[in-house]
Amino acid sequence: MRAVALVLALISSAFAYTVLTPNGSQGWTNQGGQPLTWQRVDTDRLNFTVLLTNQKVTGFEPQILAALVDGSLGNTSLNAPSGGWPTGTNFRVNLVQDDRNLNTILAQSPEFSILPSSSTIGSYVAPFIVPVWFNSPGSQ
């Protein structure tokens, strides 16, 4: 009986919200809105709250990024939390029931990184090298 219940629980969890991005190969930067994409099935809740977590950083408090997101959209852009985007590794996005039930996780992303924006690299100007010709002795 327990085995049947376990199998049913695993099957039903396979057809629930799934976070597509961010993921281990497509993280975020610390500038501007960041993309969140997901899949859902008709039996999933109609909305959810997005929570940014990092259990490997001591003292990092989970941060609500968006509440009452319309699950039928499949994607949204998330604004930075107050204080701006943190940077580092081992972040996760949790889709949770609502802002009062942060431990009721509907889906969880794989770990991903939030990296500093590369926009400052674009303002770098490479030095201009001027060729210099030397006259060798005996040349005119």
Automatic annotation (TrEMBL):
Show which residues constitute the signal peptide.
1-16
- Which Pfam families does the UniProt record give? Kre9_KNH
Q: Which UniProt keywords apply?
A: Signal
**Matches recorded under InterPro entries:** GPI-anchor_Adhesion_Reg, Kre9/Knh1-like_N
Domain Yeast cell wall synthesis Kre9/Knh1-like N-terminal: from-to ranges: 21-114
Q: What is this protein called?
A: Yeast cell wall synthesis Kre9/Knh1-like N-terminal domain-containing protein
Q: Which organism is it from?
A: Hebeloma cylindrosporum
Its organism's taxonomic lineage begins at:
Eukaryota, Fungi, Dikarya, Basidiomycota, Agaricomycotina
